[in-house]
Write a structure and sequence with these properties.
Number of domains: 2
CATH superfamily of the largest domain: LmbE-like
Structural class: alpha/beta
Largest sheet: 8 strands, mixed
Shape: globular
CATH class of the largest domain: Alpha Beta
CATH topology of the largest domain: Rossmann fold
Helix content: 25-40%
Length: 284
C-alpha cells in the first residue's frame, strides 16, 4: 500500500499559522479503509484519505454522451458534465430513444415529445446545447449491427475525444437487475467506438474516427475514476428536475432530485476526500 502525496499535504510555514495551531498533514493512499481523521503524536493532525479511485482525466476537449433514455445522464453524470462545460469543453448528447415508454400513466405518443423537450431543457442547465435523438424504440432496443452502425455514425460525425454513458453491467450492485436498454446501448457503444475507427466498416456512415481515448460509464458497480462535482452539483440537480413529467410519475427517493443525487455524491466524495464526487468506470 503506497503513499501518494497530494496538494493538500503541504504543511503551512510559521508565517501562515499561529503558534497554537498544530500543522496539518494529509496523505492519500490506496486501500479499502474508509476516510478517517486522527490526531497524531505531538499535536499533529493527520487526515488519511482513501484514493482507491483514480482522478478522471480532463485533458480533452470534446465529449459525446450516449445513453438510452432522457434522464439517464441526469441520474448521476450531469453534475460532471456541468463541471466540464464550465471548463470550456464541448459536450454533445445523443439519446438512442425518446423515452416514450417510460411513463406508465402517459401514452407513448404523448410522452415522447414531452420527454424530448425535458431532455433539451435539462441539457441547458449543464451547458449542453447539442442534443440528438436516434429514434430507436424505448424498451425494445435491439443490440446488433443497426445499433452499432447508428452509434458509429454519430461518433464519426462529432469526433469526440471521450465518450460518456451510464452503467451497462447486469446490475447496479447487490440484488438488482439493470434495464435491458442500458445493457444493450452500453455494450453496443463499446463496439461502436472500435467500429467508428475502422474505415472498412459502415462505409456509408461517415469518415472513420479513431480519436476516442476512452469510454466512461456513470453508475457502474465497478467504478475506477472520480470527478469532483462539489461546485457543479446544484446544476446537476436542476438538470434532473427538468424531467418534470417523468418525476411526477415516480415514488420514493428517485422522485426527489437532490435527495437521490446527494447521497451517492457524498459517499463518493468521502471516499476520495472531497465534499461531493461522481464515480465512473473508465474503459479504454
Amino acid at each position: 500500500m503506497g503513499l501518494k502525496a497530494t496538494g493538500v499535504g503541504r504543511v503551512p510555514d510559521a508565517s501562515e499559522r499561529s503558534h497554537t495551531d498544530p500543522p496539518r498533514i494529509s496523505v492519500r493512499f490506496r486501500g479499502p479503509t474508509p476516510c478517517r481523521r486522527a490526531r497524531g503524536r505531538r499535536g499533529v493532525a493527520y487526515s488519511l484519505v482513501v484514493a482507491d479511485l483514480d482522478t478522471f482525466p480532463e485533458d480533452w476537449t470534446r465529449a459525446l454522451a450516449v445513453v438510452a433514455h432522457p434522464d439517464d445522464m441526469e441520474y448521476g453524470a450531469a453534475a460532471a458534465v456541468a463541471r466540464w462545460t464550465g471548463q470550456g469543453k464541448s459536450v454533445t448528447y445523443a439519446l438512442v430513444t425518446d423515452g416514450e415508454a417510460g411513463i406508465s400513466s402517459m401514452p407513448p405518443a404523448e410522452a415522447g415529445p414531452i420527454r424530448r423537450a425535458e431532455q433539451i431543457a435539462g441539457c441547458r442547465e449543464v451547458g449542453v446545447d447539442q442534443v440528438e435523438f436516434l429514434g430507436h424504440p424505448d424498451g425494445a432496443i435491439a443490440e446488433g449491427l443497426e445499433l452499432r452502425a447508428d452509434l458509429a455514425a454519430i461518433i464519426r460525425r462529432h469526433r469526440p475525444d471521450v465518450v460518456i454513458s451510464i452503467n451497462f453491467r447486469e446490475s447496479w450492485g447487490g440484488p438488482s437487475w439493470n434495464h435491458a436498454d442500458h445493457r444493450a446501448v452500453g455494450r453496443a457503444l463499446l463496439d461502436a467506438v472500435r467500429d467508428a475507427a475502422n474505415r472498412w466498416l459502415f462505409t456509408d456512415r461517415g469518415e472513420a474516427w479513431a480519436g476516442v481515448r476512452f469510454v466512461a460509464f456513470s453508475g457502474s458497480p465497478s467504478p475506477t475514476h472520480w470527478v469532483d462535482v462539489t461546485d457543479s452539483f446544484d446544476a446537476g440537480v436542476r438538470s434532473l428536475a427538468c424531467h418534470n413529467a417523468y418525476l411526477r410519475a415516480l415514488e420514493g427517493d428517485m422522485a426527489s432530485p437532490d435527495a437521490f443525487l446527494r447521497g451517492p455524491a457524498a459517499a463518493t466524495g468521502e471516499r476520495v476526500g472531497v465534499d461531493l464526487a461522481a464515480a465512473f468506470e473508465v474503459i479504454g
